[in-house]
Amino acid sequence: MPRPLSRGQAPRPRASLGRTGRRLSRHPGPPCRSCCPTPSLTSSSSWQPPFSSSWQLWERPSSPTTPAGPSMALSSRRAWSSSPRPSLSCACWPLAGIRGGIFTLIFARLNIRLRNRLFRSLVSQETSFFDENRTGDLISRLTSDTTMVSDLVSQNINIFLRNTVKVTGVVVFMFSLSWQLSLVTFMGFPIIMMVSDIYGKYYKRLSKEVQSALARASTTAEETISAMKTVRSFANEEEEAEVYSRKLQQVYKLNRKEAAAYMYYVWGSGLTLLVVQVSILYYGGHLVISGQMTSGNLISFIIYEFVLGDCMESVGSVYSGLMQGVGAAEKVFEFIDRQPTMVHDGKLAPDHLEGRVDFENVTFTYRTRPHTKVLQNVSFSLSPGKVTALVGPSGSGKSSCVNILENFYPLEGGRVLLDGKPISAYDHKFLHRVISLVSQEPVLFARSITDNISYGLPTMPFEMVVEAAQKANAHSFIMELQDGYNTETGEKGAQLSGGQKQRVAMARALVRNPPVLILDEATSALDAESEYLIQQAIHGSLQKHTVLIIAHRLSTVERAHLIVVLDKGHVVQQGTHQQLLAQGGLYARLVQRQMLGLEPTSDCAAGHNEPSGSGCYKA
């Protein structure tokens, strides 16, 4: 049973497999001169395949005193020309083509199934998994590693099976010619197997290190390209190129170790084969002199031994490739077999949901920062038909409350209830249909505006998409675009401005008509008019819904029915705008400083728990 998973990185096939790939492409079947003989094969100077020579020698062995000369070659040629082998061999290349095509098709399907299973496993992981693993690493697993596994396995198993058949036939003929020399030949095999085992373990470890180094390089490239505007704004292109170059140099150092390991492996196995061949010549000569073996049979045996050595060399290359594929496969199957630590196994999906939310003594810590209490004994309620605002300095825990309400992370203590039931008890898809989030930095997909608004709702009527866009004040700018609602937004919405992206994201939330709507700095990139229109929508047409707002603008929160003030993970105040101003305290200071237009202090602006806004100001 596959063991659970740790995390990793990703790569692509090594240059050391090039020889194996070339051998596969050049020799899809048996060598051509043994398949389809040409007239030159019947000339007196042509090389005779060992099978034909042995056939003649087996039928008409010469005496120990008969020299192996032209007469033996002539007999071999006659046997070759009279045997059915040429016609049978000529039929091998179509079979080899069929075999190669079948292998290609099988392992193309393997690659697709492997990627599909890996992707399904990745998207089912808990949110903290993506906090701990870089995007570039995961993409490398999904692309380079899966390709390496399927390619290396398909190439090398094909070669391995072909050489296994050849080795089986060769061994049978070798024992038929001389069991003594066969035993001498196989005495060196335990040494070769021991060398192969040591080399294989070392090479597999090196291969995993290479893949990890390549994944780090891929991550660097992905981060740089995705943040190219930032890189260019600081004129840091050359430095980023140097960082990437250093990552590649680390890969190259590991490649050199791979090359050295392969070199020593070839030397060790080659030296062993050389000793075996010398032993065969010595002992074979003794058998010929003593009359226990004919010279022709000795020559045939030596030719078979050469064929066996060539097969063993191919198997050695296959072993290297398979070890490389095994290293990639371990990384891939670690993620495929990994079980999420937070399982969404809730079953509740009621037909009607009132939308009341209760935080009861919630304590929360991020797994990436286990020693930092982000929320401590937090309690407050969101009422249906009411707008609740969360305010506080940066790092006070506002966005963490949103993450908990969305059931992104497990709680350390306390409960979050939706209509009196724990949010974990609700069906995963149902929960996120009834709770919609618009974040400060909305993410749009490289699809049409219609597809982005109806994301996750493929059967949504177009009329409802337009209605949601109108509520979000997005319809007018969408209609001004050349393709209207069919306009492609580009990667991460790059074809739209920040305000346009936020309005499309707002429409994506409103089209679901959610009982609970969360706006996490959702109007921060909007102009005053657009913000006013969206506020009107929130306080007007959404009166039957539960609305949670996180914002720092006074104009956004002052009309809320309830304002909850957080500071360092604690609820320090609750009430309406007027009540909190009358109480004084943190909220009153924040409002006063914002109205005076003073600058935020560096301590507050550099909050440690979450990157949301800045609510502290220096006097």
Automatic annotation (TrEMBL):
SUPFAM superfamilies: ABC transporter transmembrane region, P-loop containing nucleoside triphosphate hydrolases
Biased composition, class Low complexity, residue ranges: 36-54, 71-84
Protein name: ABC-type oligopeptide transporter ABCB9
Domain ABC transmembrane type-1: 88-324
EC number: 7.4.2.6
BP-aspect Gene Ontology terms: protein transport
Entry keyword Transcription: no
Catalytic activity line of the entry: a [oligopeptide](in) + ATP + H2O = a [oligopeptide](out) + ADP + phosphate + H(+)
Ranges annotated as spanning the membrane: 170-195, 262-284
Major enzyme class: translocase
Domain ABC transporter: 357-593
Family, per entry: Belongs to the ABC transporter superfamily. ABCB family. MHC peptide exporter (TC 3.A.1.209) subfamily.
Region: Disordered, residue numbers: 1-84
A GO CC annotation given for this chain: lysosomal membrane
Taxonomic lineage from the root: Eukaryota, Metazoa, Chordata, Craniata, Vertebrata
Subunit (UniProt): Homodimer. Interacts (via TMD0 region) with LAMP1; this interaction strongly stabilizes ABCB9 and protects ABCB9 against lysosomal degradation. Interacts (via TMD0 region) with LAMP2 (isoform LAMP-2B). Interacts (via TMD0) with YIF1B; this interaction allows (but is not essential) the ER-to-Golgi trafficking and strongly depends on a salt bridge within TMD0.
Compartments in which it is found: Lysosome membrane
Gene3D superfamilies, per the entry: ABC transporter type 1, transmembrane domain, P-loop containing nucleotide triphosphate hydrolases
Sorted UniProt keywords: ATP-binding, Lysosome, Membrane, Nucleotide-binding, Peptide transport, Protein transport, Translocase, Transmembrane, Transmembrane helix, Transport
Encoding gene (name): ABCB9
Family annotation (CDD domains): ABCC_TAP
Organism: Hipposideros armiger (Great Himalayan leaf-nosed bat)
The keyword Transport is annotated on this UniProt entry: yes
